[in-house]
C-alpha cells in the first residue's frame, strides 16, 4: 500500500487514509479529487473490504470504466471488477431489477430513452386532442422530468399547492393529467424513463425497510464523485444508504456545479456537514493538470462569482503560454481559424489529434467545426448529438430485442409492428392503442387477446396480428435459453430485417449494413468483456440495460484512433486534454440567452466556462465571432462578458485590433449593416475572387499571420467551399425537421452548394433520403 500512496501528495494522502467517519473533499479543478477516490477505493480493498461492499458512483459510465481500470492497475482486475461502480442510473437500475416485484414491475422492465418518452408524450397529447404548441412534447417532458427529480409523483403533484398555483400550471392546466397518463402508460408497458430509475429507487427504499436494510449492509462504504451535480433524488438515495453508518466520502467542487437545469442543487454539497454529523472536510489546493497560466486565468475568472467557497488553487507545473484569444468576423471564419490553428500546432508542435478538444456551449455549434475540420482532412469524433443507438436501423433492431425481453414495451412495439412491412397499418395500430387505453392494458395484451378486448378489425388483419404475435413469442421463448449474441442473430434474420437491409447493395443500404454489423460487433465485445469478468450467461437484458444508459460521453465509436474531440462543455466535465479550444464566446451564446435572467444563472454560465478552461493541460484558446447565423439570419454577436472577467495578463489578445489589453468589440456594438452585407457575400455563389471575402481583406494581424502560415498548408481550400457553408440558412446537422411526405427526421449531412445543395436526412419512418434543398418541402422543428 505504501507504494501507491507515494503517488499522492500529503493532503491527498490524508483524505485517502481518513476512513473513520464521513468525509468531504472539496477542491478546485484538476487537484486530484477523482484520483483521491480511486486511491481510497484501492486502499479500502487492501485493508480488507470486499469489493462488493464498496459502492462508487460516478457521473458518466466512461468515468466509471476509467476508474475501474486504474484500480485494477493498483490492486488487480479480479477485485476491481467486482466493485459496485457506475453512474447512479446504472447502479440503481441493477438494484431495481433485483427488486422490481416490490414496486409493481418485473425484472425485465424496459428503460425508455429520451426519444421514447417524448414520443409517448406526443401520442398522449394527441390522444387527448390537445394543442401540441401549448403542450409541446419537449416542454411537457421537461416539466415531468423536473417533477420526478424533485420526487413528486402525479398524485403528489395534485397536492402540491405551489405547483398547482404556479404560472406554468395556469398556462397548461392539463399538465398533471398528462403526467398521470404518462405514468400509467409507462407502468403498463413495463417501462421506466431515466428519471424513474432514481424516483423508483427512492420509493423502493422508502416503502421497503427490509430492502433498504439489505443494501445498507451490502454497501459498507459509499463514495461519490462530482457531488456538486447531484439532484435531490440522488442526494436522498445516498443519504438513505449512508447516513446511518456514516462511511461515506464525497468529492466535488462548488465552482463546477453546472447541471442546475436538470435539478442539480449545489446546496447538496454545501450542507453536507449538517447532514452527516462529524463530517470532516479536506481541501486540495495543488492543481496537477494545467500550466500555471491556465490555473491563474481560471482563478481570475471564477473569483468574479459572489457565491463560492474561496479556494487557493495553485500549480507547480510550467508557466506555459498565455491563453490565446481568437476573434473572427463570422462563425464560419471561426471554424476556419480553429481548424487551421489545430493543423499548425499538429505540424509544428508535435501534437497528435487526440491532444485537441473543441468545446462549445450547444451541440448545434458543432456543424461549422465539422465542416472546417473535414475540409482540412482533420479526423474528429463528436460526443453527444445523434448517438449510434438512435440511428433508425439500430433502433429498429433494438426494438425487437426489447420486445423479446418485455413484449409490453409500447414504444418498441409501435416502432416495429409494421417493420418490415407486414400489412398492419396505422389505422390498425390506432385501434390497438385505443383499445389498450380503454381497457387499461398494454398493446401486447390487446394483440394476444383481440377478441377479449373486442378489437374492431377484420379477419384478415386478425390473421396478420396473429402472425406477428407468433414471431415475438418465438423470440421470447428463444431468449430464455440463448445468450445475447445468439438471440440477436436469430432476431435480425427471422424478423425480416436482414432480408430488408442486406438484399441489395445500394449506397443507402451499405451504411445500414455497416451499422448493423457494428451493433453485432458491439454485442460480441460486450459479451466477451463480461466473460472476462467471470460471467457465464450474458443475456440480452444485460446488454439492453448497458446501452440504454449511455450518456453524452459514451457515444464514442472508437477510442483508439487519433481524432480531435468535439463536445459540449457540459459533457467535458472531469476530462482533460492537452489543448482545448473553447469557442463561441459571445453574449447570448456563452452566456446562453436562456440563462441571463438572473445573477445566479450568469454565475452558473461562468462556472461552465471555468470547467471548460480547466480541461486544458498545456494550451487553451478562446474564440468568438462578430456575426453568426441564427434563425437563418446573420446576427451581430458582441463578445462574451466573461472575456473581460479573465485577468488580461493571462491572455494573448489579437494585437492589431486590440489597443492595450482590450477585447476587440467588447466596448462597441458591431456595425450590423456591415456584417449583413458580409454574410450576403458568402451566400452569393457568383461572387468573384477570394479577395472579396472580408476575412481576407481585413488583414487582422494576429489572425492573419497564422492564416498566412496555414494557407500554404491548406492551399486547396477554396472560397466556393466556404460559400456552400452558408447556403443552407439555419439547417444544421442534427437538426430535427418535418417533411410533408416523409414525416420527421434528423439531418445527418449537408453537401453541395447553391441550387445543388443537398441535405441527407434520416427519417424516423422511411430511413435515409437525400433532399435537394431547392425543392424540399420541410420545416425545421
Ligand atoms: P476535476 O475537478 O476536473 O474533476 P479532479 O480534481 O478530479 O479534477 P483529477 O482528474 O483527479 O482531478 O486529477 C487531475 C490530473 O492530475 C490527473 O491527470 C491526475 O492523474 C493528476 N494528478 C492528481 N494528483 C496527482 C499527484 N499527486 N501526482 C501526479 N499527478 C497527479
Ligand atoms: Mg474529477
Automatic annotation (TrEMBL):
The superkingdom listed in its UniProt entry is Bacteria
The EC number(s) this enzyme carries: 5.6.2.4
Where the record annotates domain UvrD-like helicase ATP-binding, the positions are 6-291
Q: What is an example of a Pfam family matching this protein?
A: UvrD-helicase
Q: Give the catalytic activity.
A: ATP + H2O = ADP + phosphate + H(+); Couples ATP hydrolysis with the unwinding of duplex DNA by translocating in the 3'-5' direction
Residues holding ATP: 27-34
Enzyme type, top EC level: isomerase
Family listed: Belongs to the helicase family. UvrD subfamily.
Record-given protein name:
DNA 3'-5' helicase
Amino acid at each position: 500500500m505504501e507504494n501507491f500512496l507515494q503517488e499522492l501528495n500529503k493532503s491527498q494522502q490524508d483524505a485517502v487514509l481518513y476512513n473513520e467517519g464521513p468525509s468531504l473533499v472539496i477542491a478546485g479543478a484538476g487537484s486530484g479529487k477523482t484520483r483521491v477516490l480511486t486511491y481510497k477505493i484501492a486502499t479500502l480493498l487492501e485493508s480488507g473490504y470486499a469489493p462488493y461492499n464498496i459502492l462508487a458512483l460516478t457521473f458518466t459510465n466512461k468515468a466509471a470504466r476509467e476508474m475501474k481500470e486504474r484500480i485494477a492497475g493498483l490492486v488487480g482486475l479480479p477485485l476491481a471488477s467486482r466493485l459496485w461502480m457506475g453512474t447512479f442510473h446504472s447502479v440503481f437500475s441493477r438494484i431495481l431489477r433485483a427488486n422490481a416485484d416490490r414496486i409493481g414491475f418485473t425484472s425485465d422492465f424496459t428503460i425508455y430513452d429520451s426519444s421514447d418518452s417524448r414520443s409517448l408524450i406526443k401520442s398522449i397529447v394527441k390522444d387527448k386532442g390537445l394543442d401540441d404548441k401549448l403542450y409541446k412534447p419537449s416542454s411537457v417532458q421537461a416539466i415531468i422530468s423536473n417533477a420526478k427529480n424533485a420526487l413528486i409523483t402525479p398524485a403528489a403533484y395534485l397536492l402540491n399547492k405551489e405547483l398547482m398555483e404556479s404560472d406554468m400550471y395556469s398556462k397548461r392546466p392539463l399538465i398533471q393529467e398528462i403526467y398521470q397518463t404518462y405514468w400509467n402508460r409507462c407502468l403498463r408497458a413495463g417501462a421506466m424513463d431515466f428519471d424513474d430509475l432514481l424516483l423508483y429507487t427512492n420509493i423502493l427504499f422508502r416503502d421497503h425497510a427490509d430492502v433498504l436494510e439489505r443494501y445498507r449492509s451490502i454497501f459498507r462504504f459509499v463514495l461519490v464523485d462530482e457531488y456538486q451535480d447531484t439532484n435531490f433524488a440522488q442526494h436522498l438515495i445516498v443519504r438513505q444508504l449512508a447516513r446511518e453508518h456514516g462511511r461515506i466520502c464525497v468529492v466535488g467542487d462548488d465552482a463546477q456545479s453546472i447541471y442546475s437545469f436538470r435539478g442539480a442543487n449545489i446546496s447538496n454539497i454545501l450542507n453536507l456537514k449538517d447532514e452527516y454529523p462529524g463530517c470532516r472536510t479536506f481541501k486540495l489546493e495543488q492543481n496537477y493538470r494545467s500550466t500555471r497560466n491556465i490555473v491563474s486565468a481560471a482563478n481570475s475568472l471564477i473569483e468574479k462569482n459572489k457565491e463560492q467557497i474561496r479556494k487557493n488553487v495553485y500549480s507547480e507545473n510550467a508557466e506555459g503560454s498565455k491563453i490565446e484569444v481568437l476573434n473572427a468576423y463570422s462563425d464560419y471564419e471561426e471554424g476556419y481559424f480553429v481548424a487551421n490553428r489545430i493543423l499548425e500546432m499538429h505540424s509544428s508542435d508535435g501534437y497528435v489529434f487526440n491532444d485537441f478538444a473543441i468545446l462549445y456551449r450547444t451541440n448545434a455549434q458543432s456543424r461549422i467545426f465539422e465542416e472546417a475540420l473535414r475540409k482540412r482532412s482533420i479526423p474528429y469524433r463528436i460526443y453527444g448529438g445523434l448517438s449510434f443507438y438512435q440511428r433508425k436501423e439500430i433502433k429498429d433492431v433494438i426494438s425487437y430485442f426489447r420486445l423479446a425481453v418485455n413484449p409490453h414495451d409500447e414504444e418498441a412495439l409501435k416502432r416495429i409492428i409494421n417493420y418490415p412491412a407486414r400489412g398492419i397499418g396505422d389505422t390498425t395500430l390506432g385501434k390497438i392503442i385505443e383499445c389498450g387505453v380503454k381497457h387499461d392494458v398494454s398493446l401486447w395484451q390487446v394483440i394476444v387477446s383481440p377478441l377479449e378486448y373486442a378489437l374492431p378489425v377484420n379477419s384478415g388483419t386478425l390473421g396478420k396480428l396473429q402472425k406477428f404475435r407468433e414471431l415475438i413469442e418465438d423470440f421470447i421463448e428463444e431468449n430464455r435459453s440463448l445468450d445475447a449474441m445468439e438471440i440477436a442473430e436469430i432476431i435480425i434474420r427471422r424478423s425480416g430485417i436482414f432480408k430488408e437491409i442486406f438484399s441489395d447493395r445500394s449506397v443507402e443500404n451499405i451504411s445500414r449494413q455497416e451499422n448493423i454489423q457494428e451493433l453485432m460487433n458491439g454485442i460480441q465485445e460486450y459479451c466477451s468483456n463480461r466473460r472476462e469478468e467471470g460471467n457465464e450467461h450474458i443475456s440480452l437484458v444485460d446488454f439492453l440495460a448497458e446501452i440504454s444508459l449511455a450518456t453524452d460521453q459514451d457515444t464514442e465509436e472508437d477510442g483508439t484512433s487519433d481524432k480531435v474531440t468535439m463536445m459540449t462543455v457540459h459533457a467535458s466535465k472531469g476530462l482533460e486534454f492537452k489543448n482545448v479550444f473553447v469557442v463561441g464566446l459571445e453574449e447570448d451564446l456563452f452566456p446562453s440567452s436562456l440563462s441571463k435572467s438572473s445573477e445566479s444563472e450568469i454565475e452558473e454560465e461562468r462556472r461552465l466556462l471555468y470547467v471548460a478552461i480547466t480541461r486544458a493541460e498545456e494550451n487553451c484558446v478562446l474564440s468568438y465571432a462578430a456575426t453568426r447565423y441564427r434563425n437563418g439570419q446573420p446576427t451581430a454577436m458582441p463578445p462574451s462578458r466573461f472575456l473581460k472577467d479573465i485577468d488580461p495578463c493571462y491572455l494573448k489578445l489579437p494585437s492589431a485590433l486590440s489597443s492595450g489589453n482590450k477585447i476587440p468589440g467588447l466596448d462597441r456594438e458591431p456595425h450590423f449593416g456591415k456584417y449583413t452585407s458580409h454574410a450576403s457575400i458568402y451566400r452569393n455563389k457568383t461572387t468573384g475572387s477570394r479577395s472579396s471575402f472580408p476575412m481576407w481583406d481585413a488583414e487582422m494581424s494576429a489572425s492573419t499571420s497564422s492564416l498566412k502560415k496555414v494557407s500554404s498548408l491548406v492551399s486547396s481550400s477554396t472560397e466556393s467551399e466556404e460559400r456552400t457553408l452558408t447556403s443552407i440558412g439555419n439547417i444544421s446537422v442534427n437538426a430535427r425537421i418535418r417533411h410533408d411526405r416523409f414525416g420527421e427526421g434528423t439531418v445527418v449531412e449537408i453537401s453541395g452548394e447553391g441550387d445543388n445543395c443537398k441535405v441527407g436526412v434520416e427519417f424516423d419512418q422511411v430511413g435515409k433520403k437525400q433532399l435537394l434543398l431547392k425543392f424540399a418541402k420541410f420545416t425545421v422543428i
